[in-house]
Automatic annotation (TrEMBL), chain A:
The chain crosses the membrane at residues 151-171. It comes from the Bacteria. The keyword Signal applies. The keyword Lyase does not apply. GO terms for cellular component: cell envelope; membrane. Subunits I and II form the functional core of the enzyme complex. Electrons originating in cytochrome c are transferred via heme a and Cu(A) to the binuclear center formed by heme a3 and Cu(B). Its main location: other. This is Cytochrome aa3 subunit 2. The lineage of its organism: Bacteria, Bacillati, Actinomycetota, Actinomycetota incertae sedis, Candidatus Hakubellales. It catalyses: 4 Fe(II)-[cytochrome c] + O2 + 8 H(+)(in) = 4 Fe(III)-[cytochrome c] + 2 H2O + 4 H(+)(out). Keywords: Copper, Membrane, Metal-binding, Signal, Transmembrane, Transmembrane helix. Residues 46-157 form the Cytochrome oxidase subunit II copper A binding domain. It is found in: Cell envelope. Residues 1-29 form the signal peptide.
TrEMBL record, chain B:
PROSITE patterns: COX2 (PS00078), COX2_CUA (PS50857). The keyword Nucleus does not apply. It comes from Candidatus Hakubella thermalkaliphila. GO terms for cellular component: cell envelope; membrane. This is Cytochrome aa3 subunit 2. Pfam families: Cupredoxin_1 (PF13473). It is found in: Cell envelope. It catalyses: 4 Fe(II)-[cytochrome c] + O2 + 8 H(+)(in) = 4 Fe(III)-[cytochrome c] + 2 H2O + 4 H(+)(out). Its main location: other. Residues 32-128 form the Cytochrome oxidase subunit II copper A binding domain. InterPro entries: CcO_II-like_C, Copper_CuA, Cupredoxin, EfeO_Cupredoxin, NosZ/Cyto_c_oxidase_sub2. The lineage of its organism: Bacteria, Bacillati, Actinomycetota, Actinomycetota incertae sedis, Candidatus Hakubellales.
UniProtKB/TrEMBL annotation, chain C:
Residues 68-107, 156-192 form the 4Fe-4S ferredoxin-type domain. It comes from Candidatus Hakubella thermalkaliphila. It comes from the Bacteria. The keyword Transmembrane helix applies. InterPro entries: 4Fe4S_Fe-S-bd, NosR_regulator. It is found in: Cell membrane. GO terms for cellular component: plasma membrane. This is 4Fe-4S ferredoxin-type domain-containing protein. The chain crosses the membrane at residues 32-56, 62-82, 130-148, 154-171, 279-296, 316-340, 361-380, 415-436, 452-472. Keywords: Cell membrane, Membrane, Transmembrane, Transmembrane helix.
């Protein structure tokens, strides 16, 4: 019984640890000027660079049409100032960005804009936020903020666990 | 049949027949009491406004239940009576209300770019 | 086996008997227990069917039928019911109530003597998961329609209800649930991982007890509708948790237990042998998870166009690829690693089929983890629609609970990747923990088991890494 509790706790602990391992430092998540929805013209100040590369300003023109964003995967470096112009080519589409929790929407001939500092690393899904047809819930794209450390931490952990299992198997006597 | 068996059968009937009859009945009553007419909105490619012609008597208050049964947003405007709903999202409803105080034929149209043939999404209100 | 401990900590023989509590035991023995839940779900599904019928081709994300079935039901099934309580859904599933009633002539009471209907036996050759495998695979051909079109969900449910009823008239007991229901197979397979089970308590009591009322039935309840032998079965796979054996056992010898997850993966008895059918179920589930993730949570428009059949060629291409991928490519890769395992072990006697089948069960925890990850990707972004559809189930402008205008709000999606990845790694741990045990069961001695395990460990790590890439990379 006691052992079961220990295992439950350690599994739960591992689970939480894994989630924490991937998270950016919580301070940067809320108190930085990142979560701004601004027009393209006002540019928020860049925070002090945390990654190796100097932060750049990156502009993406994302076209939304028929349940697809083009480009569907956009890549930036941590600290970059990202500007997104959302252009709809058929009906009313939206763009909601996971993790940064900001959104915009665009009608044909009336584009939406989004400006933010990419201070959280990892891969974030952006989703259409306006029902645009039957496949609307499946209309997504990815924003990858390099270095994608959460992914690498998880992969290393998996490999470490595999090696631990191997060691255990080989060293086991009975 | 024992008492418990009868209870089980009653519960079965409640869950099936009574539920269906209840839902349909309540909605029919609600429609009759609250709205003059139901108007469903779909892009012209998938059926357009239905009905595309609404006839109402002169001088009476009209309440239209607009149901967007499409997968995209639509809008509604009836310029001659100055009623409009800027956006009715997919799966949502809107209600417009006005007094039909002039006779004639008046166009109503969709005001959200909803499809390639959006411009054809029109209908007529006939007041007589 | 006696002192085998999972992760060196939990004894695999550990059981916590829930039925030792009076209330649980009384509930299990009451004839109201499955019935009331079934009737409640019947009510819910009547509304789902109505919403599917009235919803027609309207937006799925604002339709009660679509949301209840593909968001709430599916996610509950994968996230809680199956990993926690095995075939808990089968306990409360409303679809067989019509044929049950037709066979028994009674809803609550127990009918004595022969059951109604033709009562034919299902052919022996088809008594496996093969039909379930193909039925489920065929169902997923249309997932681009019935997860988004209310009327398509109506048709799918209608077909299932109709086939369940007709099968019940022709074949005995729950033949439909055992060998035909599309969602039965994966529940059975993944129930082997579940943390709960129904088992007999004391084998001695069962040995002395004749006739076996749990199998033939008595005045308190029916003989096992799932055609199991409750007095000795050892695997969750085909136990529908209908609780009839609690009612028919005069010695109170049935128990509902909590247990360490996954212990059924090591069961390989004469009555419940491991089989290629279950191995293929594991492959198909893994393959479908990959294809579904690419199509529904990936950003690639080409795949979406194929799945939703914008062109006939594209759709046929999807069906062909999907079928070949699930039935040939994944089993092929697995076969390759099984062959490597045999090569590494140096053993010449063990048949390759046995290695292939035994190791395929290590995909069960991992597959379940993958599906939990996938389901998190459905519920977290889209769960908020449920508030809308509960208040306005038919899109008629109702507002039953005042939540009809609740806007779409993704919940915790900033954690989605981490949650998916962490789930995957935890279930990967279970996979490798049971994997080596399977290797021990497959090869006669420890050195061979060690060497034979290495390729499989590599494969499981590779699959996990691939899914980490899909979820986070």
């Amino acid at each position: 019984m006691k052992n079961k509790i220990i295992v439950m706790l350690s599994l739960g602990g591992l689970f939480i640890l894994l989630i924490l391992a991937g998270l950016p430092s919580p301070a940067s998540a809320h108190h930085s000027p990142a979560c701004l929805i601004t027009r393209a013209k006002d540019s928020p100040k860049l925070p002090s660079p945390t990654s190796a590369q100097a932060p750049e300003e990156k502009l993406f023109e994302i076209k939304a049409r028929n349940f697809v964003f083009t480009p569907n995967v956009i890549q930036v470096n941590q600290g970059d100032l990202v500007r997104i112009r959302l252009i709809s080519e058929d009906v009313h589409h939206g763009l909601y960005l996971d993790g940064y929790e900001i959104q915009t929407s665009a009608l044909p001939g009336q584009e939406g804009t989004l400006t933010f500092v990419a201070n959280k690393t990892g891969r974030f899904t952006f989703r259409c936020s306006v029902t645009c047809g039957e496949f609307h819930p499946y209309m997504v794209g990815y924003l990858v903020v390099e270095p994608n450390s959460p992914f690498f931490i998880y992969v290393f952990l998996t490999i470490a666990l595999a090696l631990a299992n191997l060691a255990f198997v080989v060293l086991r006597r009975s | 049949m024992s008492r418990k068996e009868i209870i089980a059968v009653i519960l079965f009937i409640l869950a099936t027949v009574i539920t269906i009859a209840g839902v349909v009945g309540v909605e029919a009553y609600r429609r009759r009491e609250l709205y003059t007419v139901e108007l469903t909105a779909r892009a012209p490619e998938h059926g357009n406004w239905y009905p595309q012609e609404i006839t109402v008597p002169l001088g009476e208050e009209v309440r239209i239940l607009i149901r967007n049964i499409d997968t995209v947003s639509h809008g509604f405007a009836l310029p001659d009576f100055e009623v409009a709903v800027p956006e009715i999202k997919a799966g949502q409803v809107a209600v417009v209300q006005f007094v039909a105080n002039k006779s004639g034929t008046f166009p109503f149209l969709c005001t959200v770019w909803c499809a390639g043939r959006h411009m054809e999404m029109r209908g007529e209100l006939i007041v007589e | 086996m006696s002192e085998d401990k999972l992760f060196g900590l939990i004894d695999l023989n550990f059981r916590f008997e829930l039925t030792k509590f009076k209330l649980v035991r009384a509930l299990c023995k009451s004839r109201w227990l499955p019935l009331l839940l079934i009737l409640f779900n019947l009510f819910i599904f009547v509304i789902i069917l109505l919403a599917g019928l009235f919803g027609g081709y309207s937006a799925g994300n604002y339709n009660f039928g679509i949301m209840m079935v593909w968001i709430l039901w599916w996610v509950l099934l994968i996230l809680m019911l199956v990993p926690g309580f095995a075939r808990m859904w089968c306990l409360m599933c409303p679809f067989p109530i019509f044929s049950d009633w037709a066979q028994r002539g009674k809803l609550f009471e127990v009918r004595q003597g022969k059951l109604g209907g033709l009562n034919l036996k299902w052919p022996k050759r088809l008594s496996s998961m093969w039909v379930l495998n193909l039925a489920f695979l065929a169902t997923t051909f249309f997932s681009g329609f019935f997860t988004v079109r209310p009327f398509a969900t109506f048709i799918l449910l209608g077909i299932i209800i109709l086939v369940a009823f007709l099968t019940g008239l022709v074949f005995q007991k729950r033949t439909f649930c055992l060998y035909l229901c599309p969602v039965s197979g994966f529940q059975g397979l993944y129930s082997q991982f579940a943390t709960a089970e129904v088992r007999r308590k004391d084998p001695e009591i069962c040995k002395k007890h004749t006739p076996k009322t749990c199998f033939v039935g008595n005045e308190k309840g029916y003989g096992c509708p799932w055609l199991r032998t409750p007095f000795d079965f050892a695997k969750n796979t085909y136990c529908g948790l209908c609780l009839e054996c609690f009612k028919t056992c005069p010695h109170d010898n049935m128990a509902l237990n909590l247990r360490p997850p996954g212990v059924d993966l090591l069961v390989d008895t004469k009555r419940e042998p491991r089989g290629l059918d279950e191995a293929y179920k594991a492959f198909i589930m893994l393959g479908i998870a990959i294809v579904f993730y690419l199509a529904f949570q990936g950003p690639w428009g080409v795949i979406k166009d194929m799945v939703r059949a914008t062109t006939l060629e594209g759709y046929l291409g999807y069906i062909t690829f999907h079928t070949v991928f699930n039935l040939l490519i994944i089993p092929g890769i697995f076969f390759l690693f099984a062959y490597l395992s045999k090569l590494f072990s140096g053993n010449k006697e063990v048949p390759l089929k046995k290695i292939f089948t035994n190791f395929s069960y290590t995909l069960v925890p991992l597959g379940l983890g993958v599906w939990i990850g996938f389901s998190l990707g459905i519920i977290l972004p889209n769960g908020s629609y449920l508030l809308h559809i509960l208040s306005d189930p038919f899109a008629w402008g109702w507002n039953l609970f005042g939540t009809a205008h609740f806007p779409w709000t993704p919940v915790l999606t900033h954690l989605l990747g981490y949650l998916q990845g962490a789930t995957l790694i935890v279930f990967y741990l279970f996979s490798i923990a049971y994997g080596f045990r399977s290797s021990r069961q497959t090869y006669p001695d420890l050195p061979q088991a060690r060497r034979g395990w290495i390729p499989m460990l590599g494969l499981l790590t590779l699959i996990t890494t691939a899914f980490l890439w899909l979820f986070m990379g």
